[in-house]
Write a structure and sequence with these properties.
Blueprint (H helix, E strand, L loop, with lengths): L3 H22 L4 H11 L2 H8 L8 H13 L4 H4 L15 H11 L1 H10 L10 H14 L4 E6 L13 E4 L13 E6 L7 E2 L2 E2 L3 H4 L7 E2 L5 E3 L5 E8 L8 H8 L7 H17 L9 E4 L6 H6 L7 E6 L7 H14 L5 E7 L1 H4 L20 E8 L5 E8 L5 E4 L14
Parallel strand pairs: 1-8, 1-10, 2-3, 3-14, 8-9, 10-11
Antiparallel strand pairs: 4-5, 6-7, 11-12, 12-13, 13-14
């Protein structure tokens, strides 16, 4: 006898993998695009996911679990399709059957990983959004800040000012000589209005060319030097201990098959984090266990001093229900009663639209463009309070289109 709830969940998973392959995989990972399509039509693979807890049934988690086993030296035939494991075989008609056979062979191990592990990513490129937001905050609230990332995983983004940045492939500098290089394509550019709170002109006019700025290919200053950071603190339900080789391997498992450069960047960030762990508190980052919806205000309230707190989130809202998103924003509002709090975000516009942000564009078509991320900042607790969109970006910050005016609805940014 059929089980309507099970059938309904199978249908949901088919849709989920279909969207993942078409939106996330297309143009980014031929391997994952093909595998997503293959999972949609394979009842056995879908059944593997049904054995996992409901909140663990994600394409990214299944692919990461497989990737972890491949990194351990198993499945040479499948690894041949993964450049990060030294493979060079192009996607062909054998990829999905080979993947399905691998999953059948390692079903018990995969089932255990899907049941016990959680999604953990540290997309270093998202530091571009963080630095853009911090730069905006500085123009309104100059001086030292605390930096807190909610959903921080291993906390690597907390070291954003220790990385080098390159925009449009040109030479850039954030921290001279860093072993971690963050690249981002800039599309469009500011044409009048304001960017980061500075009225008028192109970026080159809005930003000087002082020492420590990140520079684009044109040579114009892109971002100013970061402010002094009093404390770097992450909050995560399952913090990653970078001293644990197994924990590092799990983070690496979320690097996609073709992303050899991203894997090198992540490993460079591991090394840099280890080197700063024993330095002064302003250089080192730490991550504490906590829930975004219940612990954020308390943890922010325990920070010393009265300096503003910059709270950064990237993709956090996609893991929260509508009720949880409301609760998280309430936590920020509560914390802002005691000290200035700026929320810097890189999130899906449609989810941001449910949080009560006062950004006019979120009341229009932008709220339906959830395949892209809105980068912005919300300042609360010290005049002037305001919400501002700063740019529209690929979810992984491979490219960024800066806002041309404070009311920009980004209708000029083509579909991606």
């Amino acid at each position: 006898m059929s089980d309507p709830r099970r059938e309904g969940e199978v249908g949901r998973l088919r849709r989920l993998f279909g969207v993942f392959g078409a939106i996330q995989g297309a143009g980014r990972s031929p391997v994952y695009a093909a595998l997503s399509e293959g999972v949609v039509g394979d009842g056995d693979l879908l059944a593997l996911l049904l054995d996992a807890p409901a909140d663990q049934r994600r394409p990214s988690l299944l692919f990461a679990a497989v990737n972890l086993l491949l990194a351990g030296g198993r499945g040479a035939e499948l690894a041949a399709y993964y450049p990060i494991h030294g493979g060079s075989r192009a996607v062909d008609g054998q990829l999905v059957p080979v993947f399905a056979a691998f999953c059948r062979r390692h079903r018990d191990e995969l089932a255990r990983l899907l049941s016990e592990r959680s999604t953990q990513t540290n997309e270093i490129r998202r530091c571009v959004a963080l630095w853009l937001g911090v730069d905006h905050v500085q123009r309104h609230w100059p001086g030292p800040v605390h930096l807190v990332e909610v959903g921080a995983s291993a906390g690597l983004n907390l070291l954003f000012d220790r990385y080098d940045y390159r925009f449009d492939g040109g030479a850039a500098t954030g921290s001279d000589g860093s072993r971690v290089v963050v690249s981002c394509e800039v599309r469009g550019g500011a044409r009048g209005g304001e960017l980061g709170g500075v009225p008028g002109g192109e970026w080159s006019e809005a930003r000087g060319e002082g020492k420590g700025e990140a520079r684009g290919a044109s040579g114009a200053g892109f971002l100013r030097a970061a402010p002094p950071i009093v404390r770097r603190l992450g909050i995560d339900q399952h913090p990653i201990d970078l001293s644990d080789p197994g924990a590092r391997a799990w983070l690496e498992a979320f690097v996609w098959p073709e992303q050899t450069a991203e894997l090198a960047t992540l490993r460079g960030a591991f090394t840099l984090a280890a080197a700063t762990a024993s330095t002064a508190a302003t250089a080192a980052a730490s991550v504490v266990r906590g829930d975004a919806t219940t612990d954020t205000a308390r943890i922010l309230g325990e920070l010393p001093g009265r300096e503003p707190v910059v709270v950064f989130t990237a993709s956090l809202l996609s893991y929260l229900t509508a009720q949880a998103r409301t609760a998280f924003v309430a936590q920020l509002r509560q914390a802002a009663q005691r000290r200035p709090v700026a929320w810097v975000f890189a999130e899906a516009p449609g989810l941001l639209a449910t949080t009560g942000l006062d950004i006019p564009a979120l009341r229009g078509p932008l709220a339906r463009r959830n395949t892209l991320y809105l980068v912005g900042a919300s300042l609360r607790g010290a005049a002037p309070d305001h919400d501002r969109s700063l740019g529209l970006a690929d979810p992984y910050l491979r490219w960024l289109s800066p806002a041309r005016t404070p009311a920009d609805d980004f209708s000029w940014v083509p579909p991606s």
